[in-house]
Design a protein that fits this description.
Length: 153
């Protein structure tokens, strides 16, 4: 999901609870807060020698151990936070958005959005963690760079 798609989803579903499902039937507790929104820029070189640049938006979710809530944050509050961030440090609307979450025995990870399940009173973001991958192998599958894979893997 792109940052713009997330913002549009929030804006077009005002008044609904925003729920994050990080595994099937495993939800971020209702007492979560959006504590930080990050514009990230990566420069990297993979094992095949290919230089890469990537921008991402990362929204950090934090759960208060002291606070108990029956309802999750509403979409308009999340939109307001994202808009505030965008006004201070403009968000790159065309970048993929990730949600950073971890708690207790669940190690902190950056979750991608698989899909949004929009219901009458809530929006459930179904999330997943992308496994690590050999980027030259991915290129091999796309454009047939077998010689690159032989040099790095």
């Amino acid at each position: 999901m792109l940052t713009k798609e997330f913002m549009d989803l929030l804006d077009s579903n005002r008044g609904k609870e925003l729920i994050f499902e990080y595994e099937e039937n495993q939800f971020v507790p209702a007492s979560y807060h959006i504590t930080e929104v990050k514009n990230l820029y990566y420069e990297s070189v993979d094992c095949g020698g290919f230089a890469r640049e990537e921008h991402q938006t990362v929204v950090q979710l934090w759960v208060s151990e002291k606070e108990k809530k029956d309802r999750h944050m509403e979409t308009q509050k999340a939109f307001k936070i994202m808009k505030l961030v965008d006004d201070v440090k403009p968000l790159r609307q065309d970048t993929e958005i990730f949600f950073e979450y971890g708690r207790g025995d669940l190690r902190t990870s950056n979750y991608s959005v698989e899909r949004a399940d929009i219901q009458d009173s809530k929006v459930v973001l179904k999330m997943y963690v992308e496994p690590t991958a050999c980027k030259p192998r991915n290129l091999e599958n796309i454009i047939g760079l077998k010689q690159v894979v032989k040099t790095c893997c």
